[in-house]
């Protein structure tokens, strides 16, 4: 996936304090994606010690307590003798580390570990401080467990992915070190000077009951899509330039008649890109169309709805970052209570909601590209923007690639959270499928990046073909940046490398940086 980037090395000097207060989006991204170091707040260590004392007292109680002296899930009614309780926690972790499939990306695993550490640091789980310290040490050493993408139903949280992390802390299972080399966990921990942990009462359960995987992927997705929707604004405006459309419909007073904040932001970006464009100014003098097609005229409305969807999802993610998800949980007044806070429905819903928005963002982009390639609708551009139409096919098949991706994104937009499948002998009879929603959203973002990249490839060629008419300063800056990697109009050439170069420019923020250097964008 193109959204995955190196997890270590960029900001190793930055330190993120994990404590009683919630992590920010920037904290999660810095640790997960760029290898920032973590420290545990002293107050958190003290709170963990206090709540651990509660668990230790319950361990000595003759009355069974779930997760402390009983089995789990459908086996919760079975009381476990004192001599078997360490084995109980170890067996829980080993049996639940049952993932399969494609290896989960390093940045996702680091986010998963960080967010579980954040919950441990609240002191509401009852684990010993040394368990949290082991997680922090593994993160700082760049050690991540190897786990497959299948294994979580999103309830009770991300069980299998989290179990692989707990197994690593026990010194078992397979991991990758800071260089990405696969090896046994025991070897990686020893090489990094990290002590493995023998889990005690409740600790195994506390390490696997959480929504951390789906939350981590949600935070990363929102971060990536906030940039991508601005790129979509830029691409749409450039398509309008290439098509000699009008910018009159993006006037602030027209947009204010429908006061959605996302719409206003996207319209402002498009006005900024089109400001000072001779192509648009010349076109306005001879603009014979009553109005542009929807894919051009309604871009702020569609892009803006994507923005507003992201901000709703960010509110949900922010609340989850403030949460202490575990079952049972040690309350502030020292009670140990069962609960259902591990259910992933709040996250599953917004992950699915975003996937719908992403599919539509890509869909309208593809429509603009198709319009630029069709001589019946492109207002004077050569068919498929080809150098010698007929001999050359130009960007004809680039649009096919877009269309194939958009079709895939529509399938990925089918909600995962409307599904549920019973597990654990019907004890867990309704699950969220939030992890699955997050996994498909990552694939959707990858596809949308490629679709926007192809629109930028098309729009930049269309603008070049309008010469001697010139684009505005923002489009000129973007085209210049693209031309450093991809040649302009001419005879057909091997097209896949051009598309790959544009995708790289999109993912690396090079296009966004070029545009932002010429105008203020949001």
TrEMBL record:
For this protein, what reaction is catalysed? Answer: L-histidine = trans-urocanate + NH4(+)
In short, the EC number is 4.3.1.3
At the top level, the lineage of the source is: Bacteria
Q: Which residues form a coiled coil?
A: none
Q: What is its main location?
A: cytoplasm
Quick one: which pathway? Answer: Amino-acid degradation; L-histidine degradation into L-glutamate; N-formimidoyl-L-glutamate from L-histidine: step 1/3
What family does this chain come from, according to its entry? Answer: Belongs to the PAL/histidase family.
> Can you name this protein?
Histidine ammonia-lyase
